[in-house]
Amino acid sequence: MSSNEMRKLLLIIFAVVSLIGCSRQQGSVAGEEKESREAKAMLQGVWMDRESGDVSFRVKGDTIFYADTTSMPAYFKIVGDSLVFASGTKYAIEKQTEHLFWFRNQNGDVIKLEKTDDQDATAEFTHDTPKIMTYTHQVKTDSMVSYNGERYHWYIAINPTKYKVVNRTYNDDGVEVENVYYDNIMHISVFKGGQQLYSSDFRKQQYDNIVPSEFLTEAIFANMEYSHADASGLHFNATLCMPDGASCYLVETLISYKGQMTMKMIE
Fold this sequence. Notes:
The protein has helices at 3-31, 37-42, 119-123, 213-218; strands spanning 45-49, 55-60, 63-66, 74-79, 82-85, 90-96, 100-104, 110-116, 133-134, 139-147, 150-170, 176-192, 195-202, 220-230, 233-241, 248-255, 261-265. By secondary structure, the chain is of the alpha+beta class. An 8-stranded antiparallel β-barrel has the order 1-2-3-4-5-6-7-8. Strands 9, 10, 11, 12 and 13 form a 5-stranded mixed beta sheet that branches. The protein starts with a helix and ends with a strand.
């Protein structure tokens, strides 16, 4: 085969591959459901629960704003018969008109909302941005403890930070919302007389080989407390909790009399 023939053959192969690729791409786009701009336009405004009369949310552009001062705004789109959040959570739309919006929440209940022009309802959205919550305030505790004829002085400092933790939960309508909290750093120091045996900060990431990572991502380092002293050393309990306090892990932090630190799960 001559070089000219080879060149022609390669050009033919390239053209065929390109046509196949374009065909697949067009088929993929055609198979995707497009966002309904008309449905999104009808959703603009303030919506309140038809039965309770409570304000649920306000829609502006492609964002849902909640009336409470802690839930973060949520990006959304309407695809087919579903309200879709950026997180991927979907809610089936049962009915939508210019003034009605019915959808099924995560429990399967139908939430019936009505659009309102009431000024009091609109006034609930005057706050600029949701508050970022601090789970605890700055605390410092200390005490003396005696063991085997020796006296030890320990202190704990709980310090709020600007590290943000995003916690996903459900509001009264059964809709997923995000709240943001500031995490804490714990500090422990232990002294034997004037000698410092141990001093260090603790962050929740240090517990990633003990506490499940999925839990730790949304958890707050809630507390550090002194427990007791024995032959092994001074025992402190670290508490890592979901911000609502419904579920926690308790991890023991042991400081030995030689200044060595170890951890183990309690519950």
